[in-house]
Design brief:
By secondary structure, this protein is mainly beta. It contains three helices and 18 strands.
């Protein structure tokens, strides 16, 4: 075994007060000295390509995966990545994914994490868009003990676009740390980010979401919205939505909604024969299924539903 130490994970571009402990994450973890590594390069040159990359993780293993996904001019591609392991498996996984969208191209990246309850994962995604190019990232995180997700995108081209839809369930002592950052360089570029999730018993979740309007990105637009449902008094949630602006003629907005399952909702459901536990289960599923519906794979959508059923 080898002790791994990471001191700069998910660092935000504009630091805030240190006492908030949200500027960055750190990690120390023991992992196998034997590394199972894999690198893939995928290039799309036409419209409508779909690539499925299932990643199966075994007990006690250490994995390092890298992918480079390119969409040539006018091409469209969907890449679906599915991380799974046995329910109680443990290990360490590091994933780096680079997305390159050439002019008028479109990339849809899907990442679904259904790892065992003792797995630790660092998952980085970095994208760059040329003129009128678009990158969509659909991400669902349900398993694992500690998960670190980072999604960065550079909107370099005129009228380039980035869209992300994220769903998660973080409960039973899980830790989830997320950092989303989109930098606008191109004029009339656009960002839309939505994140929905549930934080439950003994869980700790951090979300950092930044839209950065760089000088020269006139008429750029950006919007990020977060919805968090707290299911326990012991749940810890930290959110820091940020808009940075170095250009006058732009429009940016953000919002964060934090709530609990209220007495009125519970009374309404219980009056119709739905128990409190069933009500909580329904609310958790709703957050995830709203995002999983964007996945263009019925098989994977059904797999997510089965996971939700078996882990309630």
């Amino acid at each position: 075994m080898e002790k791994l130490k990471f001191t700069e994970i998910n660092t935000i571009p504009c630091l805030t007060w240190n006492w908030l402990k949200m500027n960055r994450a750190s990690l120390e973890v023991e992992a196998s000295s034997d590394i199972i590594s894999e690198k893939k390069e995928i290039t799309a040159s036409k419209k409508g390509e779909v690539v499925y990359l299932p990643l199966a993780f075994e007990e006690g293993k250490r994995y390092e995966h890298e992918q480079v996904i390119r969409a040539e001019e006018n091409a469209e591609i969907t890449v679906i990545m599915d991380y799974t392991s046995a329910q109680n498996a443990g290990g360490f996984s590091s994933i780096k994914t680079k997305l390159v969208a050439r002019p008028y191209s479109k990339i849809h990246l899907v990442k679904v994490q259904l790892l065992g309850s003792n797995y630790v994962q660092i998952d980085d995604t970095f994208g760059e868009c040329d003129d009128s190019a678009e990158i969509n990232v659909t991400q669902i995180s349900l398993g694992g003990a500690r998960t670190y997700i980072q999604v960065k995108n550079e909107l370099n081209g005129f009228a380039s676009k980035f869209k992300s839809d994220t769903a998660y369930i973080c409960e039973n002592g899980q830790s989830l740390d997320m950092n989303y950052l989109v930098s606008h360089h191109g004029q009339k570029s656009d960002t839309k980010m939505q994140i929905k999730g549930v934080v439950g018993e003994g869980a700790f979740k951090v979300y950092r979401g930044t839209i950065d309007f760089k000088r020269g990105c006139a008429e750029a637009t950006g919007d990020e919205q977060e919805e968090t449902l707290l299911m326990s008094k012991s749940a810890v949630n930290k959110s820091i939505p940020i808009i940075l602006c170095d250009e006058e003629n732009v429009a940016g907005s953000h919002g964060a909604t934090l709530g609990r399952l209220g007495a009125d909702e519970l009374f309404y459901m219980q009056s119709r024969g739905i128990s409190e536990e069933e009500a909580k289960s329904m609310m958790k599923k709703a957050k995830v299924l709203a995002v999983s519906g964007l996945i263009p794979s019925q098989e994977l959508r059904e797999k997510i539903e089965k996971w939700l059923e078996s882990n309630q």
